[in-house]
Amino acid sequence: MIELKNITKTFRKKNRDFTALADVSLSVEKGKIFGVIGASGAGKSTLIRCVNLLEKPTSGMVVVDGQDMLSLSAGQLAEARRQIGMIFQHFNLLSSRTVFDNIALPLELSNTPKAEINKRVTDLLTLVGLQDKQHDYPSSLSGGQKQRVAIARTLANNPKVLLCDEATSALDPETTGSILKLLKDINRRMDITILLITHEMHVVKSICDEVAVISNGKLIEQGTVADIFSHPKTDLTKNFIASALDIELPEDFKERLTDAPAPGKHPLLKLEFSGHSVNDPVLSETARVFGIDCNIISARMEYAGSVKFGVMLIEVYSNTDDVEKVITFFESKLIKTQILGYV
Ligand SMILES: Nc1ncnc2c1ncn2[C@@H]1O[C@H](COP(=O)(O)OP(=O)(O)OP(=O)(O)O)[C@@H](O)[C@H]1O
């Protein structure tokens, strides 16, 4: 449905050429959700804006639903863009129009008959769960409600593709979850292909089928979410995954945590499981082999396909010498292990 082939984009900055995208190629199959993740300035916005030619690539090819976008006339491009919806971090609603009228706008612009507009907008309001807000103005809505209006508005034209430019970055975690669920629902029910950009791996983990990691304008890794999560190759990808899995030490432990060992305190270890880790019952083996008990303080284990990955914080009931043996044992199972301190 979306194909970017060898896209390069250079900007002229202070009389010098700056390469924002370098030879980027990606392909999104119909009906899939594809995420592009990267840090600030990596080139994510430039990349997604190349799909509907809000940004014209310096070289390369953009094909959407079989159409070579760069070969279209202005009229054909306007028509093609109607098939490509886009939502933004800051919603871009018209403050002088009600919720209903914001959603109706694209239909008015395409001269849709009034009765049809009423029916379509009412259906869309139901789809995004905002029937009771139709007469309200954007200023009285929460961020999540504003994004629902923006989603309904972009769906009014029945697009085949939805581009999401950091669509949940301005929202709190709970609202983010509900918007991601809505996007997944739209993808499934309406068979809309979604390309999203984000700097948050949990967004990718929640709804994407495939992911590409962008750094300095280059795609440095791409594959299915299961593959990338279970076998990340680059440090950047590993860091993004770690941020999606990060777990907090409970307050009580934070207060008691010291850097140095002390009588009566136990080492607190952080174990990181990746797709490379051996899937053995390591905690019970530790107890059996070394006679050392472990207490799980906090854990977050996830599965990508059949591969387990995640983070676990454990308290080890042993003296300092013994803990080195335990760490060596975990490392032999390819579980990355670190002493966080003593509690
Ligand atoms: N119109 C422009 N003119 C000059 N440079 C630009 C232009 N647009 C983007 N850039 C540069 O291209 C690089 C990539 O920008 P882009 O906005 O695509 O990054 P991003 O990954 O979306 O970042 P963020 O998450 O902070 O929005 C940046 O260094 C930016 O300064």
UniProtKB/TrEMBL annotation:
Cross-referenced InterPro entries: AAA+_ATPase, ABC_MetN_proteobac, ABC_transporter-like_ATP-bd, ABC_transporter-like_CS, ACT-like_dom_sf, MetN_ABC, MetN_ABC_transporter-like, NIL_domain
Source organism superkingdom: Bacteria
Organism of derivation: Mucilaginibacter limnophilus
Pfam family, one: ABC_tran
UniProt KW keywords: Amino-acid transport, ATP-binding, Cell inner membrane, Cell membrane, Membrane, Nucleotide-binding, Translocase, Transport
GO molecular function, a single term: ATP binding
Gene Ontology CC: Gram-negative-bacterium-type cell wall
Annotated ranges, domain ABC transporter: 2-241
Protein name as it appears in the record: D-methionine ABC transporter, ATP-binding protein
PROSITE patterns: ABC_TRANSPORTER_1, ABC_TRANSPORTER_2
CDD domains: ABC_MetN_methionine_transporter (cd03258)
